[in-house]
Amino acid sequence: MSATQQIAEAFTAARAAGRAIEAYPGTPPATLAEAYAIQAAAIARWPDAVKGWKVARVNPAFAVQFPEERLIGPAFAPNVHRVEMGGTAVCPVFDGGFAAVEAEVVIVVAQDAPAGKADWTVDTVAPLVKSMHIGVEVASSPLATLNDIGPGAVISDFGNNWGVVVGAEIANWRELDTIDVETFIDGQSVGTGKVAIRPGPLGALAFTLNKRAQQGQALKAGDVISTGMITGVHDIRIGQQSRHVFAGVGEVQVQITRAGASGG
Known about the structure:
Elements: H1 3-17, H2 32-45, E1 50-57, E2 70-76, E3 80-82, E4 88-93, E5 98-109, E6 129-141, H3 146-149, H4 151-156, E7 161-169, E8 178-185, E9 188-196, H5 198-214, E10 224-226, E11 234-235, E12 241-246, E13 250-258
Parallel strand pairs: 1-10, 3-7, 4-13
Antiparallel strand pairs: 1-2, 5-6, 5-10, 5-11, 6-7, 8-9, 8-12, 12-13
Helix pairs in contact: 1-2
């Protein structure tokens, strides 16, 4: 088994068992190509269908080694949670691993993207937006130190994603420049931020379309794209609840539970 396959096997086996691992299972990928090769091998090993993608910024400290502004990771069907206003999404994380919540804008893709088109920009992606929603990414990995190792490690383990919560629709997103957002954990404010619709969510969608095209794939109608954190990456523990307030739009709540066998 190649090193790529060994790393993919170690992470997917841990996720399937709902257990933590103590160290990166091999040498962390040193390039984007290596990282995405491991991700692809892990996706091929996982039984669930990919129903979307999480997007995150590449930390500027790693920009020379990983020269892309963003990274992506798969969101699997059982981990896409749709909640109505006032509802609470119940989301598992890995006990002893990494666990965090991030307030994010989530885009639902309107139609299958044209095969091979890899020149999307914030000026051209609007027709691919079926709807835009307030939401949350639940980031979790069996490895507690995954984020500390860097973007290559994050990419290799499903982008450190284990949930995308799709909340209420932002019906008037075309008329908005920004939305103010605040995150609470167990009632305590842990972060505030402002999302700029054009460079943020639309930029993330353009990046994902282009990245998937470069990988020989295309986004599909109904895919969900979690477009990047707004108030920060907030550590959370099993049993805690988060609330994410999007001013003038609504809020999303998440209850954190322990991942069991098959990662659920």
